User: Which sequence fits this backbone?
């Protein structure tokens, strides 16, 4: 009986119900196929690797790759490719943000979004540090971002990327929106909702947007401020990465509120 191993671009970097949640998604996606998921583990970069067995194992693998994407070689990339990746080593360098896009051969290479591109795309060219930009737009370790490949230097083993137009639009709309937000990585949406309920804030949440398997955006109602929620819910979210998005941070750190229609001056 055919056996296929497939690595998808979804990370299992923390328990937090990740494997159970991923299996639920995968089983739903493959429900019409004759295939059994025999094993789920993470590779050396925490991307999920699944062992599939059954007559439809190859078709199942193809469907998973279509849905989640897969690891690749540096030589497979060309400018213009759009890839879903996850922020890695946030704030360890000051010249940009690195995104793990699953490049594992012939060596591991992460895509760099240079600081000047972040300024151009998100701040209309205004000067700001990587940390100020990241904190203002809710960047956390492992946050999923959709990027477009700009340049690939195969000889040096370097990749330059930028945020896609759709990703930029979403981040700008989120920043200009009047509702405070919490961006949380390292926990499933189900467990995050449970933590909010335990802290007494379940009814103050408008919605929880799932960015990835373990990454979520909590949108709070208009009478609830993010710092207050974090103070109360933080003890229930041990081991997670959390960043807040709220108006005061833009006014204090950058001087204006970015929006898809252009910056709103202070």
Assistant:
């Amino acid at each position: 009986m055919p056996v296929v191993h497939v690595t998808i671009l979804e990370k299992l970097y923390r328990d937090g119900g990740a494997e159970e949640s991923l299996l639920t998604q995968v089983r739903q996606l493959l429900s019409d196929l004759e295939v059994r998921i025999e094993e789920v583990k993470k590779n050396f970069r925490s991307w999920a690797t699944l062992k599939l067995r059954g007559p439809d194992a190859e078709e199942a693998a193809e469907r998973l790759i279509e849905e989640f994407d897969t690891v690749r070689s540096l030589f497979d990339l060309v400018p213009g490719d759009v890839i879903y990746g996850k922020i890695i080593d946030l704030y360890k360098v000051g010249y940009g943000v690195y995104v793990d896009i699953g490049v594992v051969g012939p060596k591991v290479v992460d895509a760099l979004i240079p600081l000047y591109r972040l300024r151009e795309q998100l701040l209309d060219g205004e000067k700001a540090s990587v940390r100020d930009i990241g904190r203002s737009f809710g960047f956390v370790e492992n946050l999923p971002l959709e990027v477009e490949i700009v340049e690939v230097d195969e000889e040096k083993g370097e990749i330059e990327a930028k945020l896609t137009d759709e990703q930029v639009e979403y981040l700008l709309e989120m920043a200009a929106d009047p509702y405070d937000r919490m961006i949380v990585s390292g926990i499933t949406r189900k467990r995050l909702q449970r933590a909010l309920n335990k802290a007494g804030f379940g009814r103050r949440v408008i919605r929880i947007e799932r960015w990835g398997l373990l990454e979520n955006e909590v949108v709070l109602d208009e009478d609830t401020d993010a710092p207050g929620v974090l103070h109360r819910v933080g003890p229930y979210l041990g081991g997670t990465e959390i960043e807040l998005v709220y108006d005061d941070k833009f006014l204090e750190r950058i001087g204006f509120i970015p929006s898809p229609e252009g910056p709103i001056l202070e």
Notes: The mean pLDDT is 92. Residues 199 and 233 are 5 Å apart (CA to CA). The longest strand covers residues 96-105.
